Every structure is written in C-alpha cells, then in structure tokens.
C-alpha cells in the first residue's frame, strides 16, 4: 500500500481531475487515469518533503462545507463595505499567533483566512510561529483572533493532528 | 442558445445574475477603495466567487441541454486554489515596497522587523 | 428569462472590465496595476464562459482554462519581480 500508493489522496485527486478534464466516463479512460494516478505520485515522491496526513476525512469534508458557507457570508460583508458610501473603514495589521505546526496545515489556514471575512494573510513571521493578517474593517482585534482560532484552527488541528 | 423551462431556467438565470453582480461589486471595490491593501480584498473574494457562480450556471446549463458536463468545475477549483496565493504574493510586494496606507490603519505587530523582507 | 440573464451578465462584466481598465491606467503604484491585470484576466474568463452559453457550445472551455492558468502565472511572476527584482532565483 505504502510502496505503491505513497499519497492516496493525491492519487484520488489526480484520477478525479483526469476524468473531469476528459468530461466523459468510460472504462478505458478510468484505466488510463488509474495508471496515471499511480505513476505520477511515484515519480514526484522524492520532491515532496512536506508529509501531511488527513486523520479525519469526514471532519475535512465538514470543514470544506463550513468554508463554502463562510465564503458566501464574507462576500456579503465585503459587498456592504464597498457599496455603502459613507462608512469609514478601519483597517489594521494584526499579528496572529499560530498553534499548529507543519507546512501544509499552515498553508491551509492561511488560504482559509484569505478567503473569509475581511482578512488577508500577508506574511509569515521568520520563525514560522505567527501570521501577519491585514483586516479590512476591524474594531476589536482580540475578538477576531479568538474567532479564527476557535472556528478554523481548532478544526484543522483535529484534522491534521499536529 | 436553447431556451430552458421551469426550474432549470430559474436556476441558471439566478446563478448568472448573482455571479455577475458579485464580480461587478469586486471591480467597483477595486476602483473605489482607498489604499492598496484594502483594494486587495475586493478582487480576491468577490470576483472569485462571482466567476465561480457564472461557471456553476454554465455547468447546469450544459448538463440540462447537452449531456452531463462537469469539466467547468476545474476552472472554479483552480480559481479558488490560486486566489489566496496571488493575494498573498501581492500583499508581500505591497508591504515590501512600503506603499502609502490610509492614515487610520493600525499597525498592531509586536515586532515589525521580524517580517521585513529586506535582507 | 435566460436570454435576459445572459445579456445582463454581459453588461455587468463589461462594466467591471471598464472599471478594471480605469484602475490599470490610474495606478498609482505597480502592485495596483498587477492586481487590475489579474482581475481583468478573471473577468474576461467569465466573459468567455458566458459566450459559450450564448452560442451553446462547450468549445470555449479550453480557452477559459488556459486564460486562468496564464493569468495566475503572470501575476505570480510579476509579484515575484517586484519582490526580488528577479523572477527565477
């Protein structure tokens, strides 16, 4: 299992990607897709030095759905800020202390922050223990940090066990 | 273009209209927000979601009129994966060049030097 | 109903593209222009998808996917250039 499939989720993703690109499902395409999905991770395995395993796939799916809903809500917030003419925005650069470790979990968290309400990840501190966030309109930055921690970081910690 | 009927007509039309509205809002934000870091927020979120909506409408339209057609989903996945990355790189560039920020931006970093990119 | 929705979406995306062009010309700094270019890429991709619906063909899909990829790579390369003064390190 581990020799033949070093990264099972990558293989699955490649197979689905291949079928989507072909836009049809037939036996021949599935066989070719499976061959590609086994060969490509084997070939690229040496270059992948950031091991990450998803321990709880169902939690990951739940996280994905939560993210979709939050992206919708965040867009309504941004639309309100853009369209209301008189509202003064209060931007801030915030330091967000990280509890999780590992390159993949931090990347997922940073992308989540960039896609959700009024925040963008701008940089990571040199020691990798804090992110710098630009918030578009924030009154209480402690509350923002606490909400990100409780809403996303705890879930990621559970999913990746890090 | 083939005219649709019933629920498909409503679904495709509302997806297209909502998507177009979000993309328009994103571009309005790009045009009228006051400084670069604020402008970065509008296209990464609104435009990505708007184009995603239009592509979902296209998926439903082609699935109803022709055969099952899911490959537009690739564009949506690609956009949602790459939008945070380009936003991050542009934010880095903006901070590196020390662009003008609106005067009420609060800098709450404890050690700003730890982030500076100038070696 | 659908025909009006597609026409409305065409108009909305054209207005969005004009606004992006205004930002592209106005600046004031280079990152602003790169951001405007990136948004232009994404909006024109949506315009191509709409064109596909209008003509009822799926042939524009590949073009849209290519625009998405090239737009992302272009944005990353330009941002990298601003950061380091060089693209390949």
Automatic annotation (TrEMBL), chain A:
The chain crosses the membrane at residues 12-43, 63-84. One of its GO terms (molecular function) is monoatomic cation transmembrane transporter activity. It is a multi-pass membrane protein. The keyword Cell membrane applies. It is found in: Cell membrane. Pfam families: MNHE (PF01899). One of its GO terms (cellular component) is plasma membrane. Keywords: Cell membrane, Membrane, Transmembrane, Transmembrane helix. Belongs to the CPA3 antiporters (TC 2.A.63) subunit E family. This is Na+/H+ antiporter subunit E.
Automatic annotation (TrEMBL), chain B:
Keywords: Membrane, Transmembrane, Transmembrane helix. The lineage of its organism: Bacteria, Pseudomonadati, Pseudomonadota, Gammaproteobacteria, Alteromonadales. This is Na+/H+ antiporter subunit G. The chain crosses the membrane at residues 12-34, 46-64, 70-91. InterPro entries: PhaG_MnhG_YufB. It comes from Pseudidiomarina gelatinasegens. It holds the Pfam family PhaG_MnhG_YufB. One of its GO terms (molecular function) is sodium:proton antiporter activity. It comes from the Bacteria.
Automatic annotation (TrEMBL), chain C:
It is a multi-pass membrane protein. GO terms for cellular component: plasma membrane. InterPro entries: MrpF/PhaF-like. NCBIfam families: PRK06161.1 (NF004812). GO terms for molecular function: sodium:proton antiporter activity. It comes from Pseudidiomarina gelatinasegens. This is K+/H+ antiporter subunit F. Belongs to the CPA3 antiporters (TC 2.A.63) subunit F family. The chain crosses the membrane at residues 6-22, 34-54, 60-83. Keywords: Antiport, Cell membrane, Ion transport, Membrane, Transmembrane, Transmembrane helix, Transport. The keyword Transmembrane applies. It is found in: Cell membrane.
């Amino acid at each position: 299992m581990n020799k033949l499939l070093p990264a099972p989720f990558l293989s699955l993703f490649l197979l689905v990607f291949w079928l989507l690109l072909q836009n049809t499902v037939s036996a021949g395409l599935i066989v070719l897709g499976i061959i590609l999905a086994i060969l490509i991770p084997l070939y690229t395995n040496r270059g992948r030095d950031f091991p990450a395993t998803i321990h709880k796939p169902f939690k990951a799916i739940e996280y994905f759905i939560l993210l979709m809903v939050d992206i919708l809500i965040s867009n309504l917030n941004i639309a309100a800020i853009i369209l209301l003419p008189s509202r003064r925005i209060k931007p801030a650069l915030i330091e967000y202390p990280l509890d999780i470790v590992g390159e993949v979990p931090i990347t997922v968290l940073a992308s989540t922050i960039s896609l959700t309400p009024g925040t963008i990840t701008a940089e990571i501190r040199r020691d990798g223990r804090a992110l710098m966030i630009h918030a578009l309109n924030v009154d209480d930055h402690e509350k923002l940090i606490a909400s990100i921690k409780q809403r996303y970081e705890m879930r990621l910690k559970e999913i990746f066990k890090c | 273009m083939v005219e649709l009927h019933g629920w498909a007509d409503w679904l495709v039309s509302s997806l297209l209209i909502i998507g177009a509205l979000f993309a328009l809002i994103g571009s309005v934000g790009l045009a009228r927000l006051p400084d670069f870091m604020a402008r970065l927020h509008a296209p990464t979120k609104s435009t990505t979601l708007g184009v995603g909506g239009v592509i979902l409408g296209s998926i439903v339209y082609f699935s109803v009129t022709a055969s099952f057609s899911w490959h537009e989903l690739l564009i949506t996945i690609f956009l949602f994966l790459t939008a945070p990355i380009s936003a991050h790189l542009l934010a880095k560039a903006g901070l590196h060049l020390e662009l003008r920020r609106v005067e009420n931006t609060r800098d709450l970093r404890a050690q700003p030097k730890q982030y500076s990119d100038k070696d | 109903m659908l025909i009006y929705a597609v026409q409305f979406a065409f108009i909305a995306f054209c207005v969005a593209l004009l606004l992006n062009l205004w930002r592209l010309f106005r600046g004031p700094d280079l990152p602003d222009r790169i951001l405007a270019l990136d948004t232009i890429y994404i909006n024109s991709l949506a315009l191509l998808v709409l064109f596909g619906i209008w003509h009822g063909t799926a042939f524009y899909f590949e073009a849209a996917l290519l625009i998405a990829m090239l737009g992302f790579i272009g944005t990353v390369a330009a941002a990298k250039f601003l950061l380091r003064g060089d693209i390949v390190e």
